[in-house]
């Protein structure tokens, strides 16, 4: 019997579509049957090495066939995949290795120096597997040697729908936390919202088997939850998934052209802007592309409009959700941070809760938090306090509080103002960074911008902007005049810090800790 568990469903799809390509990354490609056998070998190797159900396996890898294989293999033996941010330096890795309790780690040899420095300090980490060639890390075994003598047979014990899946997220204001999902909940929480999923696992497999050939691309790195989820979603409709090893806009467009990609997902402006720049500078055959979707980070309206002008025959979509909530809502026409974010909920278990954790009435104007119940995450790994605060039980119903402040319009759409934890209180007025960032990025001289709060002796906090300019002579006065023409005075940045390159995660998430420090230094 097939279960709502990633490996179970994957095996069903592999049996139904053995010769269809499952994954492409550069020159590497595997059919579903080939990927299944490769994952079986790695799964047997991990199990033989002592990895047991429920234990955590880390992946400190760039995109590649080995990352995809590892995700499937770990789920086959009921272990738990853990994404490791490949940009982390030694101190951050020291925290993550310890917090996640990983017992095995697959890592790219480009990270040899960092792994060698930190791995000996991780109490539970006992197996290191190097991907990409010879390694200098003491005690590590090369991937090829690790799986060389292993069986490719599919002979694993039964699995469970409560098997765990962990995605480490955050780090914009503090160290990341591991978001725990059960296999069934994450499958349903992130289910493709464009159709009504079948009610049974067998139905999911049949749907994939009967779907037409689609080529989909997750542009974000697999160490980001959006790319992992996008991969599974693609397979549940029988799609071939395309990746590039590292994000570079021209490389992405060349892959889309070469592989005839139909649909792609990105994460916000940090990817959309350089991709739009590349479209203006180069020519690509994108005749197969029909959908361009941003998820995990919001696209500003100016950037979306620019892309739409460059891709007139492509549907540009913006989705709202989080690692903890799953796929939550679709942006309504005209929605943007500049004009106001408006989203149509995907499911009836999505609401806005007021300060008393009661649903906000449509049209009341009351501001609360976007919340979801039903198929949501279980909590945060080793953080009971944060779990209790973020996942309260109200009248017997368990909710996730996303932290996004919003109200409900008369027509039931949700108007989102921004993340409450990032809101700036300046002289009693509340400013949402997303709105100011969006306005700054409509200036032709601005490539990227982050807005944060820094201390102010008069107003408590002041609005400060960290800005990466395009080539040109844009000045602070230019940006001030631009913002004052579009924003109330109290929202206009009073401090600017100009940087040669914005610091974001590989998936485009803002690093507000760094932005705050940079802005404070600029203010003196």
Secondary structure: number of strands: 27
What characteristic shape results from the CA principal axes? globular
Q: Cα distance, first to last residue?
A: 65 Å
CATH C-level class of the largest domain is: Alpha Beta
CA-atom Rg in angstroms? 23 Å
Q: Domain count, please report it.
A: 3
Beta-strand share of residues? 25-35%
CATH topology name of the largest domain = Rossmann fold
**Mean pLDDT reading:** 91
Main beta-sheet annotation? 14 strands, mixed
CATH architecture of the largest domain: 3-Layer(aba) Sandwich
Description:
- With 524 residues, the protein is an alpha/beta fold.
- The protein folds into three domains: 6-12 and 26-210, Rossmann fold (3-Layer(aba) Sandwich); 346-420, Luciferase, domain 3 (Roll); 423-523, ANL, C-terminal domain (GMP Synthetase, Chain A, domain 3), CATH 3.30.300.
- The N and C termini lie far apart (65 Å).
């Amino acid at each position: 019997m097939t279960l709502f568990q990633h490996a179970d469903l994957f095996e069903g799809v592999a049996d139904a579509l053995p010769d269809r390509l499952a994954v492409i990354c550069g020159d590497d490609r595997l059919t579903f049957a080939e990927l299944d056998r490769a994952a079986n070998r790695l799964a047997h190797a991990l199990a033989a090495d002592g990895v047991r159900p429920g234990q955590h396996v880390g992946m400190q890898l760039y995109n590649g066939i080995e990352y995809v294989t590892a995700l499937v293999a770990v789920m086959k033996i009921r272990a738990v995949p853990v994404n490791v941010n490949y940009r982390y330096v030694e101190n951050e890795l020291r925290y993550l290795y310890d917090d996640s309790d990983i017992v095995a780690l697959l890592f790219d040899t480009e990270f040899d120096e960092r792994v060698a420095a930190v791995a000996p300090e991780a109490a539970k980490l006992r197996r290191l597997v190097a991907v990409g060639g010879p390694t200098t890390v003491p005690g590590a075994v090369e991937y090829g040697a690790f799986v060389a003598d292993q069986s490719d047979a599919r002979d694993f014990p039964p699995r469970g729908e409560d098997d765990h899946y962990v995605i480490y997220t955050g780090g914009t204001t503090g160290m990341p936390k591991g978001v725990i999902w059960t296999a069934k909940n994450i499958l349903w929480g992130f289910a493709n919202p464009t159709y009504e999923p079948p009610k049974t696992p067998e139905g999911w497999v049949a749907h994939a088997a009967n779907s037409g050939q689609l080529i989909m691309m997750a542009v974000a790195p697999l160490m980001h939850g959006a790319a992992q989820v996008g991969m599974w979603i693609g397979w549940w409709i029988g799609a071939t998934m395309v990746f590039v090893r590292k994000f570079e806009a021209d490389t992405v467009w060349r892959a889309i052209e070469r592989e005839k990609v139909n649909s792609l997902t990105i994460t916000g402006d940090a990817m959309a802007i350089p991709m739009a720049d590349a479209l203006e500078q180069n020519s690509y055959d994108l005749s197969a592309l029909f959908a361009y979707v941003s998820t995990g980070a919001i696209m500003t309206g100016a950037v979306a409009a620019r892309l739409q002008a460059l891709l007139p025959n492509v549907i540009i979509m913006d989705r709202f959700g989080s690692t903890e909530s799953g796929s939550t809502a679709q942006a309504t026409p005209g929605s943007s941070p500049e004009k106001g974010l408006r989203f149509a909920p995907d499911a009836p278990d999505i609401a806005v809760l007021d300060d008393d954790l009661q649903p906000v009435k449509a049209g009341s104007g009351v501001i609360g938090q976007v919340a979801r119940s039903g198929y949501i995450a279980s909590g945060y790994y080793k953080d009971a306090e944060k779990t209790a605060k973020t996942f309260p039980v109200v009248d017997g119903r368990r909710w996730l509080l996303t932290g996004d402040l919003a109200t409900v319009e008369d027509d039931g759409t949700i108007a989102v103002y921004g993340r409450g934890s990032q809101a700036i209180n300046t002289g009693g007025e509340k400013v949402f960074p997303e709105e100011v960032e969006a306005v700054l990025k409509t200036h032709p001289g601005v490539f990227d911008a982050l807005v944060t709060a820094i201390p102010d002796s008069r107003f408590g906090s002041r609005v400060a902007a960290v800005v990466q300019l395009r080539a040109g002579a844009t000045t602070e006065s230019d940006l001030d005049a631009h913002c004052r023409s579009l924003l109330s005075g109290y929202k206009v940045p009073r401090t600017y810090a100009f940087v040669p390159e914005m610091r974001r995660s590989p998936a485009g998430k803002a690093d507000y800790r760094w932005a705050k420090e940079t802005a404070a230094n600029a203010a003196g």
